[in-house]
Amino acid sequence: MDTVKANGITLAYRAWGPEDAPPVLLLHCRGADGADWTQIAERLATGARPRRVYAPDLRGHGRSDWPGRGTEAGAGEYAYEAMRDDMLGFVAALGLDRVDVVGHSLGGAVAYLLAQQAPHVVRRLVLEDVPAPMPLDPPRPPAPAPDTDPPFDRAMLRATDEQRNVPDPLWWDHMGRITMPTLLIGGGPTGAIPQEEVELLASVIPDSRLVTVGGGHLVHEARPREFLAAVTPFLDGPGVTSRTPS
Fold this sequence. Notes:
31% of the residues lie in helices and 19% in strands. By secondary structure, the chain is an alpha/beta fold. It has one domain (2-235): 3-Layer(aba) Sandwich (Rossmann fold), CATH 3.40.50. Helix 2 (80-93) crosses helix 3. The longest helix is centred in the middle third of the chain and has 14 residues, at 80-93.
């Protein structure tokens, strides 16, 4: 595992594949870390068109910094926008030009915010079972406290719950800024995300298509073969870029 300084914090990350291969950034769901992507990353890194795969731990998760630790809420430290800026800094710190971005759930929301903010950085975008940024009614209740010390900051749960309940309206208003090809993957009716939300996202992102793989919310874990069968040819589309020379 390596680390890099980005956006004022230290981010831990795992990497697979040839350093000069086209880069892919994998963003995990809430409560997980970059290791969640290992099976997918290994296959992307060693496929017919090998890729350089990066799977960072988002702030407040795993071995990355937990800047809100010990605070009452940590709302500012764990804002989705802060995670977005972390990833923009991460890409820059590694000397990458354009990257393909694959995000799951929370990581998917971070991914679409990154695509809105810096469309020149994201070549292709994959959103796995990602909810639409709509206010929840009724709101999501507070997450129960883990029985043991979890591999994430409890303050992150509170902060992300707050934004999930009442997301910034600009997140929705700026979906039209996502101009790169986008693939949405749905987990089907057994998932934690209402599939009509995934369908709604697909309807407002200009150059997008939706594939329902099934398997519930953890699509890439429950059905890795089917997940890769959808994602790999999509990422192999035209315009692949490589690492920027240092």
